Amino acid sequence: MASNHEIGIQEKPRLDKWVVLSIQHLFAMFGATILVPFLVDLSPSVALLSSGLGTIAYLLITRGQVPAYLGSSFAFIAPIISAMAIGGPEGAMVGSFFAGIVYGIVALVIKTIGVKWIMNILPPIVVGPVIMVIGLGLAGVAVDMAMNDQGTGEYNGTFLFVALVSLGITVLASIFFKGFFSLVPILFGIVGGYITSLIVGIVDFTPVKEADFISAPEVIVPFVTYTPSLSWTILFIMVPIAVVTISEHIGDQMVLSKVVGRNFIKKPGLHRSLLGDGVATIIASLIGGPPNTTYGENIGVLAITRVFSVFVIAGAAVIAIFLSFIGTFAAFIESIPTAVMGGVSILLFGVIASSGLRMLIDNKINIGEKRNLIISSIILVVGIGGAVIQVNEHIEIPGMALAAIIGIILHQVLPNKEVSYGKKSMFETDE
Fold first, then answer.
1. Which is nearest to 318 in space by CA: 51, 126, 43?
2. What is the per-residue pLDDT across 15-30, written as a single tens digit (0 to 9) for each?
3. Local structure of residue 424 (DSSP, 8 states)
4. Confidence of residue 426 (pLDDT cuts 50, 70, 90)
5. Is the pLDDT of residue 286 over 80?
6. Residue 170 and residue 191: Cα distance in Å, rounded?
7. Angle, nearest 10°, between helix axes 44-61 and 310-323?
8. Could you tell me which of 246, 301, 249, 203 has the C-alpha nearest to residue 2?
9. What is the reported pLDDT for 427?
10. Is the bond preceding residue 67 a cis peptide, omega within 30 degrees?
């Protein structure tokens, strides 16, 4: 649904139009936001709740000046899976909390000394390959979900068929659909895959029939449902990922600034938007949801509709919170077969990896330079190969974190630094 005229950031649309525009934002983020908890075994309804609450917190912290919707972060999928294996959902939430704290610290430093220092620590030659590691590290998860029965772990041809149909629909929607529909290929893939699953008979409807219509999300709250404990290994797994998501956040702010025609890096300031992102992740960690981040799909909606109203974004957040309390809806989401999500994930995780590659291309990084070749090669092999450093029996630095740390160190110590920044600044602003 495209708007006939631009609706400003502080403008409040007429109620009927307001609701429709808010639902449109909800659709844009929906497929991706429920996919993350599905993949990491957290509650989709809690993810919706934390997405809504996080977005409202973000709008308040940015003083209603940045029209951005926040949903579940893909960068944290692999770290959450690893953290859950060590300390269960509770351990993952503690790690997520500290990742949010890192946002706050970086926001404080940016407010004090500006943004240039980030570029020094995180050139494209480090961030690009680390993003590729995040996507490619999940390749096995997507393929396993697509072709194996999760109950028995055995190959299942029916599951693979459903996964390929889901993937095919997602690809077709991405390429051939226009306007708003081109922004929600994941949603089309999940719906098409679900219908296919119904036809081949792999959907269990029993939980949907038995669910209460109104049902509070199953939140996990520190000191209420569990006593938090600190694991250094989980911190090493999750906190370094904040480094990558912070650079992604800055990229999103720049795209958003171009779309809306305002410099959000200057006003309300990058420190405010980063703090908003961090607080949204902290809120999610306190109720058992995956970390939050600004959503490219929703920026796409702004670009197409020219509706920049923060009231519309807030409306989408309120509807997401409302939906999280509909028990039948939550049970319906959980009835989606893993093969459907696996098929969609094959494309999605590949897109994450490709976006790392795109960062290198966009910044015109010359991989022919030995320095760049060495840094990117080591990051990729250490990260995807799953190298770990066992500090002691309680502390382990895992592959993804190790890859990021080694990349940052190599960039600082190897000569000829300027070739790693490429031909244009990754964090270019109009300042």
1. 51
2. 999 999 999 999 989 8
3. S
4. low
5. yes
6. 10
7. 150
8. 301
9. 55
10. no
Determine if residue 15 is left, alpha or beta; phi over 0 gives left, psi from -120 to 50 gives alpha, anything else beta: alpha
The token pair at 386 is 């799953």
CA distance 163 to 86: 29
Closest CA to 187 of 333, 306, 87: 333
- CB-based burial of residue 195 (10 Å sphere; 0-12 exposed, 13-18 middle, 19+ buried)? middle
Q: Strand locations in 217-311, DSSP E?
A: 292-294
> What is the C-alpha to C-alpha distance for residues 383 and 381, in angstroms, rounded to an integer?
5
Calculated CA dihedral for residues 292, 289, 219, 193, nearest 10 degrees: 120
pLDDT in tens, 363-420: 999 999 999 999 999 999 999 998 989 888 778 888 888 999 999 999 999 999 999 9
Burial class (CB within 10 angstroms; exposed 0-12, middle 13-18, buried 19+) of 414: middle
* Main-chain phi, psi angles of 99, to 5 degrees: -60, -40
8 Å CB contact between 308 and 9: yes
